[in-house]
Design a protein that fits this description.
single chain, alpha+beta, eight-stranded mixed beta sheet, 13 helices
Length: 534
């Protein structure tokens, strides 16, 4: 995800129990035999980027999961295991040695070496390159020297080549979960062909990325239409069971759903909210559900005066009836959320936002008026994500319970919304979705709320929160780290830079032309399991 990360579409909710069993086990698309020579068609939204260190949303990450193979992936207990890495070891949690498996090549024939990772990570960390996921290299020694308008260095001092297949990573402080981080998209390698000069990305690379994964790009990225990939025969890892994948780009989930029903699309990753009540009838056992790691929130531009007071933010939260919207709009396919961390990770606690999560319209209105909340509220969202119904329902509640004017404003694409947010253009409140990058409490906190977090679009900054995160990262074990992360989450509950609304689960469907369709916790279709049928 991988991504994990920012989710464009409404992610649909996690049962509190981690033992949730899928309604089906992938479906078999009928009794047809496998067709290894056929390609499959999977819906996505328009990616924002297709460079690994710049991709922090789920659609781009789904594509990159085809083109790249991660150093590690995660087992059923969410523990990392080696994939492209032969081993990832450390005696002190500060100096890590990464040994690569031999035999990996990029799709242009280049051998994957330690330098492939070092070059890619240096590019991602160097501030003038403006990479969305630069934050993920913050723990590596020398990162601070790569920041600012005129950085003191261009490469991370903590990265050292040992031999062609081995390199070391020295962190500024010990971090016991570093191996877990390495499954994230930002840690993919890049070939020499990706650069026109040392540290300079070649023009056009993003339109036809060269990876070292099970599939290679076919043609170029056709914006707002599709990205096609085909099986890479020289891939040394687990082979896919299909000849290729067409990632078909949709701006409306209803159109994707209609195409699945007519067998013109093979997988829709999120059933539209308006079709949830009929999906089981429409698709039969091709309607699937499985656990996910997603969290839906409404976010505040805390840097704007009208939303700078926590009292205003808490009043808005208390004016929203999460339970009613979950029932009426999502047909109980989501779970109301009153915490900042998903139930799928160790350290989750119920109702960490306390009173701010209680529906109390009278108290909310009094608090809102006393704090001088604005008379008009705008809720911005991406129009390509199936959010209109719940945004409208939320606006209606705010009108009735706070006595304000409320309007929902759709940006055409999620990428458009992210671009506006990055530029701090006024958009009012805005919906965000998060799918974890790697299984840790820290991943629900650091990227989203730390002062320099890669996905902190709200301008939130609390030095004590940053301090607790840093202390958690340095903790010698998971138990001690969780204590610090929970204390940091308690600070978020006091400040409430976002309103947790719902936890998600995967609600997806597929055509009669595929079988063994599975989705992981990171909002990705498993491309090594899916099969086409004759």
């Amino acid at each position: 995800m991988r991504v994990r990360r920012l989710a464009a579409w409404t992610a649909l909710p996690l049962a509190v129990t981690l033992g949730l069993v899928a309604c089906g086990s992938g479906g078999d698309g009928g009794s047809g035999k496998s067709d290894p020579n056929a390609a499959v068609r999977i819906e996505i939204a328009e990616p924002q980027h297709l460079v690994p260190t710049n991709t922090n949303e789920t659609s781009g990450s789904q594509v990159l999961a085809a083109l790249f193979s991660p150093l590690v992936d995660y087992d059923e207990a969410n523990k990392p295991y080696e994939v492209a890495a032969e081993s990832v070891t450390s005696s002190d949690n500060k100096v890590w040695t990464i040994k690569l498996k031999d035999g990996y090549t990029f799709h242009n024939g280049e051998k994957v070496t330690a330098e492939s990772y070092i070059d890619a990570w240096n590019y991602g960390a160097y501030a003038p390159n403006g990479q969305n996921s630069s934050y993920f290299f913050e723990k590596v020694a020398g990162y601070a020297d790569l920041q600012g308008e005129k950085p003191a260095a261009k490469t991370l001092s903590g990265l050292k080549k040992v031999d062609d297949l081995t390199f070391t990573v020295t962190l500024t402080e010990p971090y016991s979960e570093f191996k877990t981080m390495l499954g994230y998209t930002a840690f993919y390698p890049l070939p020499r062909a990706a650069f026109s000069a040392p540290g300079v990305l070649a023009e056009g690379y993003e339109q036809a990325p060269i990876g070292q994964g099970p599939f290679k790009i076919k043609g170029t990225w056709q914006h707002d239409a599709k990205v096609e990939v085909e099986k890479y025969d020289a891939f040394p890892g687990q082979k896919p069971k299909v000849a290729g994948v067409e990632f078909r780009i949709y701006q409306q989930p209803t159109a994707a759903y209609a195409d699945v029903l007519s067998d013109n699309l093979d997988v829709i990753k999120t059933i539209p909210t308006e079709s949830l009540s009929t999906a089981a009838t429409d698709l039969g056992d091709r309607f699937q559900q499985s656990p996910a790691s997603s969290l839906q929130v409404l976010s505040f531009p805390t840097f704007q005066k009208e939303f700078s007071k926590p009292e205003v933010r808490k009043a808005i939260s208390m004016a929203i009836d999460r339970d009613e919207i979950t029932k009426s709009i999502f047909k109980d396919s989501q779970q109301p959320a009153r915490s900042f961390v998903s139930p799928v990770v160790a350290g989750y606690r119920e109702n960490t936002i306390g009173a701010a999560g209680e529906f109390d319209p009278a108290k909310a209105k009094a608090m809102y008026q006393a704090a001088g909340g604005p008379s008009k509220i705008e809720l911005s969202y991406n129009g390509d994500g199936g959010h209109k119904d719940w945004i409208d329902a939320t606006c209606n509640q705010l009108k009735a319970n706070l006595g304000v004017e409320c309007v929902g404003t759709a940006e055409p694409k999620f990428a458009d919304l992210l671009t506006k947010l990055k530029a701090k253009q006024p958009v009012g409140l805005f919906r965000m979705g998060w799918v974890m990058d790697y299984p840790s409490m820290e991943n629900y906190l650091g990227p989203l709320y730390s002062t320099n977090g890669s996905s902190n679009y709200y301008g939130y900054s609390n030095p004590e929160f940053d301090k607790l995160l840093a202390e958690g990262a340095k903790a010698p074990n998971e138990e001690e780290a969780i204590k610090k992360y929970q204390a940091a989450e308690d600070l978020l509950a006091e400040d409430l830079p976002v309103i947790p609304l719902r936890f998600g689960q995967n609600n997806f469907g597929h055509s009669t032309k595929v079988k063994n369709v599975e989705m992981d916790l990171f909002d990705r279709v498993d491309l090594l399991k899916i099969e086409a049928v004759k």
